[in-house]
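Sample intake — MBL fold metallo-hydrolase
Collected from: Streptomyces ardesiacus
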Amino acid sequence: MTYSGEVTVGGPADVHELKDLMITKVAVGPMNNNAYLLRCRATDEQLLIDAANDAHTLLGTIGDDGIASVVTTHRHGDHWQALAEVVAATGARTHAGRYDAEGIPVPTDVLVDDGDTVRVGQVELTARHLVGHTPGSVVLVYDDPHGHPHLFTGDCLFPGGVGNTHKDPKAFASLIHDVETKIFDVLPDETWVYPGHGADTTLGAERPHLPEWRARGW
């Protein structure tokens, strides 16, 4: 079946099958958070992005093979409600942005900086540090050698705009700058975007709207 990225809390996961990587998207919790399970096809190693909520659903999605690591995209509580339980059940190593780790109540094993490589089996993801939604938000880029890039944005980029900066002009200016220079300026329109909540998008769909986002200030 064709991947759509349309998932609902309590509903089935959706699986995006790439040549080297399988991406399973599931929605959990009262804030409709997305969690993404990445599986290296060559090694079967798995990585979870955002143990947001509902550990039972997440562990069921993970299955008996477990996960080697879990990346928390940022410090906001709706993105780590199930982290302690998932880590306890799987023994996974925890990753988070260096400047958000202190706001996550589960200890972070690996502090992630801009440009760092995060691996799942033989697959490499590149972390980019974006400031504005939180001080230490990280997004992950998988530059598929067989196709277009795939971008996991947490709450930094959604269909229709950047993440919430709570009407703080400095935070918005920082986030829109980082999103433009570290994402839109270096990745092609075909890049598939997997946000922390709601539907997926592509950079090509969002790029024409950057000027209006800047003008409205959110």
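Post-analysis note: The radius of gyration is 16 Å.
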